[in-house]
Amino acid sequence: MSRQYETVIGLEVHVELATKTKIFCSCSTEFGGAPNTHTCPVCTGMPGSLPVLNRQVVEYALAVGLAVNCEINQYCRFDRKNYFYPDNPQNYQISQLYLPICHDGFVEIETAAGKKKVGIHEIHMEEDAGKLIHDEWEDCSLVDYNRSGVPLIEIVSEPDMRSADEVIAYLEKLRLIIQYLGASDCKLQEGSMRADVNLSVRETGALEFGTRTEMKNLNSFKAIARAIEGERKRQIELLEDGKKVVQETRRWDDNKESSRAMRSKEDAKDYRYFPDPDLPPVTISDAWIQEIKDRQPELKTEKMARYQEEYGLSAYDADIITGAKYMADIFEATVSLCGKPKEAANWLMVEAMRLLKEEALEPEAIRFSPENLAKLIVLVDNGTINRTVAKEVFEKIFAEDVDPEAYVEENGLKVVNDEGALRAVIREVIAANPQSVTDYHNGKERARGFLVGQTMRAMKGKADPAMVNKVLEELL
């Protein structure tokens, strides 16, 4: 009988914070920009330059820590992690090892087996390194220090996850919490959220962990899921062949769907950590913690409950709309303008979601304003346009954020409420379709639907369907 294995997974998630300036200097953190233009003596590691801590970094770290149920170290400090690499200008990284800002938290995720708590070992603040660009044409490597000194928090989980599904649920929950707090946009494709996966396997029922490997270079949830599956398989094959798993850092290649060894895994002692002599300890008062708590926004769970209570949305609708902070923001702004929550929810969940899916976009890519969506809802509600026309107008709003009132006026899309004109068109439709009229009188209800359709076509979709039905009934 073949042996059964259990996968044990822990994550190190790096999140780039949404501050305007870097962690220890006043250089811009904006993504992009020509290489080495967002730099100064501090973030390029010039001798004699001194770091000064950005207060906003501490506030974001505290906000995230409180939102994931962490204890706060009210006395914390920075340490130097020494390693020599071309994109690390000082030859050390300023991080936190001995006294990180947050510790012992958890997030609750939904799994196939129900709710599960994933422990958070710690959250610490640190600076990002620069970026190496390998130029194969010139056969050299170039370094860009724009990212050097960008503030990060590293969220280190306990090894509590057992499958790729649990890992994705944990990351999605974490990403949503951080986005709701406004601490980061968490765009994996831009590197503002990065996850390293620590994975080991052990025989089912075994108490001791197996030898773990760490996988880097994961910039999408799909890549993370594939990497977990690939590494799990690789380790089981090694154990089945009687070989040992080596503790190492591996690089995942998503195109080849395989990983390769980068370097043997270092221990903390290899980095020769010591307290940074240039930075004083950070003392966090009770009053400061209370101030952050008072500023914490409503997160997804509370929003969902409020949407059901206040707006009468179903649990499903509330779940979908709060699934992206940007979508929830548009929804609330639209409702405050038109006072029609169910209509606003329907347009976002059906039409906006459909167009996002067709164009393979995230909700953050929505460019239309709540004002224009609210105007569209009012136009339909007032009977100025019908739903068929409204869908066409919505597509223009989605693509170009047009003003629906102006667009409807310019393109003559208002519902025709002239009963005389409608009667004339319906008479023509009846005269042109004698067979359908006969079928209708013989009890075939579908024939009536056909005649309604022909009338709407003749009216270019601008007739009021209720009036069409009423007049048609009368004339038949």
UniProtKB/TrEMBL annotation:
Top-rank taxon: Bacteria
GO terms, molecular function: asparaginyl-tRNA synthase (glutamine-hydrolyzing) activity; ATP binding; glutaminyl-tRNA synthase (glutamine-hydrolyzing) activity; transferase activity
Annotated keywords: ATP-binding, Ligase, Nucleotide-binding, Protein biosynthesis, Transferase
Domain Asn/Gln amidotransferase positions: 329-476
Catalytic activity: L-glutamyl-tRNA(Gln) + L-glutamine + ATP + H2O = L-glutaminyl-tRNA(Gln) + L-glutamate + ADP + phosphate + H(+); L-aspartyl-tRNA(Asn) + L-glutamine + ATP + H2O = L-asparaginyl-tRNA(Asn) + L-glutamate + ADP + phosphate + 2 H(+)
UniProt record similarity statement: Belongs to the GatB/GatE family. GatB subfamily.
Protein's organism: Hungatella effluvii
Stated role: Allows the formation of correctly charged Asn-tRNA(Asn) or Gln-tRNA(Gln) through the transamidation of misacylated Asp-tRNA(Asn) or Glu-tRNA(Gln) in organisms which lack either or both of asparaginyl-tRNA or glutaminyl-tRNA synthetases. The reaction takes place in the presence of glutamine and ATP through an activated phospho-Asp-tRNA(Asn) or phospho-Glu-tRNA(Gln).
Protein name from the UniProt record: Aspartyl/glutamyl-tRNA(Asn/Gln) amidotransferase subunit B
PANTHER family found in the cross-reference section: GLUTAMYL-TRNA GLN AMIDOTRANSFERASE SUBUNIT B MITOCHONDRIAL AND PROKARYOTIC PET112-RELATED, GLUTAMYL-TRNA(GLN) AMIDOTRANSFERASE SUBUNIT B, MITOCHONDRIAL
EC number: 6.3.5.-
Enzyme class: ligase
Subunit structure: Heterotrimer of A, B and C subunits.
Matching InterPro entries: Asn/Gln-tRNA_amidoTrfase_suB/E (IPR017959), Asn/Gln-tRNA_Trfase_suB/E_cat (IPR006075), Asn/Gln_amidotransferase (IPR018027), Asn/Gln_tRNA_amidoTrase-B-like (IPR003789), GatB (IPR004413), GatB_C_1 (IPR042114), GatB_Yqey_C_2 (IPR023168), Gln-tRNA_amidoTrfase_suB_CS (IPR017958)
GO BP annotation list: glutaminyl-tRNAGln biosynthesis via transamidation; translation
Gene3D superfamilies in alphabetical order: 1.10.10.410, GatB domain, N-terminal subdomain (1.10.150.380)
NCBIfam families (UniProt xref): gatB, PRK05477.1-2, PRK05477.1-4
